[in-house]
Amino acid sequence: MIKFKDIFKLATGYKSQLSQFFGFNVLTSIFNVVSIGMVIPFLKVIFKDDDAVLIPAVFSTSPSDFLKFLDYEMSLKILEWGKYNALLYFSIGIIIAFFLKNIFLYFSFYNLAYVRSAVVRDIRETLYNHILRLPLSYFNKEKRGDTISRFTNDVKEVEWSLLGVIELYFKHPVAILIPLVTLFFISYQLTLFVVVVLPISGYLISRVGKKLKHAAQLGQEKMGEVLSHLEESLHGIKIIKAFSATKDKEERFKTLNDEHFRLMVKLNRKEFLASPLSEFMASIVMSSILIYSGSLILNADSALTGEFLIGYIAVFSQLIPPAKAISEAFFRLKKGAASLDRINDVLAAEVEKDKNGLPAPEFSKEIKLSNVNFSYGDGPLVLKGINLTINKGETVALVGSSGGGKSTLADLIPRFHELNSGSITIDGQDIKSIELNSLRSMMGIVTQDAILFNDTAANNIKMGDFYLSGDQLINAAKVANAHEFVRELPDSYNTNLGEKGMNLSGGQRQRMSIARAIAKEPPILILDEATSALDTESEKMVQDALEKVMQNRTSIVIAHRLSTIQNADKIVVLDKGQIAEQGSHAELMAKGGIYKKLVDLQTFE
Ligand SMILES: Nc1ncnc2c1ncn2[C@@H]1O[C@H](COP(=O)(O)OP(=O)(O)O)[C@@H](O)[C@H]1O
Ligand SMILES: [Mg+2]
């Protein structure tokens, strides 16, 4: 269960701002009371009875005598200055007090503004860095939209509840304590009375919000679904249009959106109950005070006069905003806690294990898969008892019908997933013991969809490798048949590929990603249907690039078109997660098994 202090922990790095926030709050509260209290001398001027006899009083620390002393002093001053001047002086006093109060208020918020935004920045940074280090399996399970919703909405909620918590710690106590002390001075009897009544009503208010956390969590989850749906629709907008599925999508969206709507209505109604409820409580408290104080004034002995009572009520009214804010902080905490839970879920997800962290071996012999079994999560085995040796310099092709486990097998070599059992070794060293970055930098990977980032052509090839020389970069682009068209971009290699109008063709994008894969001159190349998404003409260009790239390298090639892998040293046929056959093209054709059937089918096409 998340408590105030868990939320507050987020801000502990900003002690200096927090202490300034506190200090300025003290000053704000003092001048708030002073400016409000100035109403007392004001009333004194207006209501002064000229014929009344002045009873001298001396300074005393006893509150009731002090009050009499103040009353006497005020009367003296009014006599001395004259009523009109007194009005003027008191007004100037009020202006100065309000001015100072607001200056300090500004400085307190000045610091708070920094802390809240800094914490949001910190959370996003931690989240993003963590997300990048999560294993691929995480992204399959959790939908992208949901992650984005945690990144945006939940962080926003946490920001709100953090504000509530900081104010709860460093503002409201001061904003209550300072007026309260003043009230004690004016009338301790009345204030004792109030001190008993106020917490009781506060407790009642705080009970209302108990169920809010659950509702808030449901709301966030629904929003995650809505965003997922949106994301999916944007991604597949072409397909939606092509299949005239607009109506269907609209209806699905409407269902989700309406469910979210209903949850939010409930949540917001509950939330807004907090404010009227506390105000109603406050009015009950006020009335009790009025009754009690009236009787105190009517009692001639008491030092409490009409002016002081009105001043008292004015100062007392200053207790209401912080009291209200405290009850609201409880509500906000419930929502913020639900959100912090969701953020912590992401942060608690285990990042890729990278323990022993040995550097990658030279790679002079072979990659060896022994008895590899693998399943996604708790699902069925996708790969069963795979034994395969890929010798240095060889081109090994993985073929088989779709869903057979080719991509999965290729993903295991850079350790995108952990094996259920068995092992994968490079030159006899288990890949589990190799540092991930070191392992992956041995491999160049090209997949079916060429991913380009919103960055320059050069940086898209470099991918953060600042040590890559300009020559290496251009060489890679040349081998990938990308140099020619990149040179013709408006700013050549410095052209931002994310900009509008920079629409590269599928083939060009794919050649960019080939250039990226080989820029670091990795000894191992993994090509997963690199040409499948291309038309025949760009396929030729890309295939040509690939053939150049594969020379003198160890390559694992998954190809849809079998004609492109006929020259592979070894062709491995994967069928339902198992190796059905392996050998050269000639051997497998002679054998007349699955491979021959696949080839025949394609020739027939
Ligand atoms: N991320 C994933 N989560 C769960 N199952 C998956 C995932 N990726 C692939 N699969 C399943 O694993 C099996 C093999 O898929 P895949 O390796 O992509 O086959 P291929 O590349 O040969 O078409 C399929 O049954 C597929 O549904
Ligand atoms: Mg595949």
Strand content: 5-15%
**CA-to-CA gap between the ends?**
62 Å
Number of strands: 10
Mean pLDDT: 86
CATH class of the largest domain: Mainly Alpha
Rg of Cα set: 37 Å
Supply database-style keywords.
605 residues, alpha/beta, ABC transporter transmembrane region fold, Rossmann fold, 2 domains, 4-stranded antiparallel beta sheet, 23 helices, binds adenosine-5'-diphosphate, binds magnesium ion
Structure description:
This protein has 605 residues and is α/β, with parallel strands linked by helices. The chain has 2 domains: 4-218 and 270-348, Up-down Bundle (ABC transporter transmembrane region fold); 366-604, 3-Layer(aba) Sandwich (Rossmann fold). It is 63% helix and 10% strand. The protein contains 23 helices and 10 strands. The protein has helices at residues 4-9, 15-37, 39-47, 63-81, 83-133, 136-141, 144-170, 172-186, 188-207, 212-235, 237-242, 246-298, 306-317, 320-348, 406-412, 436-440, 457-462, 470-479, 483-487, 506-519, 536-550, 585-591, 594-604, and strands spanning 366-375, 381-391, 395-399, 421-426, 429-430, 443-446, 524-528, 554-558, 570-575, 578-583. Strands 6-7-8-3-9-10 form a 6-stranded mixed beta sheet, with helices on both faces. A hairpin with a 5-residue loop joins strand 1 (366-375) and strand 2. Helix 3 (39-47) runs antiparallel to helix 13 (306-317). The longest helix has 53 residues, at 246-298. 33% of the residues are buried. The chain binds adenosine-5'-diphosphate (ADP) and magnesium ion. Magnesium ion binds at residues 406-407.
